[in-house]
Design goal:
Elements (H helix, E strand, L loop, with lengths): L2 H5 L13 H6 L2 H11 L11 E4 L10 E8 L2 E8 L7 H19 L14 E8 L9 E3 L18 E5 L7 H18 L4 H14 L4 H96 L4
Parallel strand pairs: 3-4, 4-6
Antiparallel strand pairs: 1-2, 2-3, 5-6
């Protein structure tokens, strides 16, 4: 059974929005191989026929990302597109992709994980192609940075290292794709009231500047439809994102409120404790004074008794 057929089985696909230009572009073996060669120019022996394209099951998608897997001999490469919104949790998300992909790979190859012999699996590589604007551009995201009580000196049992891609030379397919996205964003900003003009201008400018020319000429009608779908879904997804951010803010507010309430409670408790201590101190003092008074009275009575008995 061909590995791409296994991974691309319909029952494994769970996307909430239609494929983006990203997945349309890199689902073509020609451009997928060019993508691979851009990342690994040192590999001069691999060929396009050796490459398998994997459609990843999109478990956590909110529609803002599209995901692609490439299996090239001993490498498992996962690519995630971040169109405009920054996600600080890509290492966690890709951990699940890697896990599920290895599970399918092991089943396909009939590998026995219970065997006393060591099995071999492809080496994972994870990339995020970020096409939005951002001042801070970390080179990597790490799974270990999410660990509770994280310390860089910790001995980590597991790690996921995500390479962030922000730009590439326009001569290669990655750089051209990023340029395409930036042109699209610019035109959307220039024509906020008429998205059709923004899309039309994007395609015209890309053809004029020789950005993804062959791909756009071959798929112009479908790309046009994909971009319209993206605009429609982006509105919905932005609403979902805003609601998600509101929920997070509310939860943080509640947590902070609870902590503030506990702090006030502790302060109130201290005040009550101090007052209770003073009250208890007064009560103890009063009891001691009462005891002493009783003792004094007893002594006075003994003295009187002695006097009455003639003892001076």
């Amino acid at each position: 059974m061909n590995i791409s057929k296994l991974f691309n089985s319909r029952k494994l696909v769970n996307r909430k929005v239609k494929d983006s230009v990203f997945t349309k572009l890199f689902s073509d073996p020609k451009y997928a191989f060019e993508l691979y060669k851009t990342i690994h120019p040192e590999d001069t022996s691999s060929t396009e026929s050796m490459l398998d394209i994997i459609t990843l099951e999109n478990i956590f998608t909110n529609g803002l990302y599209n995901d692609l897997g490439i299996l090239m001999e001993n490498r498992l490469m996962i690519f995630v597109e971040a169109q405009s919104s920054w996600n600080a949790n890509m290492s966690i998300r890709t951990l699940f992709y890697i896990s599920q992909t290895y599970e399918k790979y092991i089943k396909l190859k009939d590998l026995d994980v219970m065997s006393s012999n060591s099995i071999k699996i492809p080496k994972p590589e994870v990339y995020v192609i970020f096409t939005g604007e951002r001042k801070e551009k970390p080179e990597f995201q790490y799974l270990s940075s999410h660990f509770i009580d994280f310390s860089e000196n910790d001995d980590k049992a597991i790690e996921v290292k995500v390479k962030m891609i922000y730009n590439y030379n326009n001569d290669n397919v990655v750089g051209q794709y990023i340029k395409f996205c930036k042109i699209f964003d610019e035109q959307m900003h220039l024509f906020p009231q008429d998205k059709r003009i923004a899309i039309k201008r994007t395609l015209e400018i890309c053809l004029e500047k020789k950005v993804l020319v062959d791909f756009l000429k071959k798929n112009e009608s479908e790309v046009n439809t994909i971009m319209k779908d993206f605009i429609f879904n982006e509105k919905l997804l932005n609403k979902i994102h805003i609601e998600s951010e509101k929920r997070i803010a509310r939860e943080q507010g509640l947590a902070e409120g609870r902590e503030a309430g506990l702090a006030e409670g502790r302060e109130a408790g201290l005040a009550e404790g101090r007052e209770a201590g003073r009250a208890e101190g007064r009560a103890v003092a009063e009891m001691e004074i009462s005891r002493l008074n009783t003792y004094i009275k007893e002594l006075e009575q003994k003295i009187r008794n002695l006097e009455e008995n003639g003892v001076h």
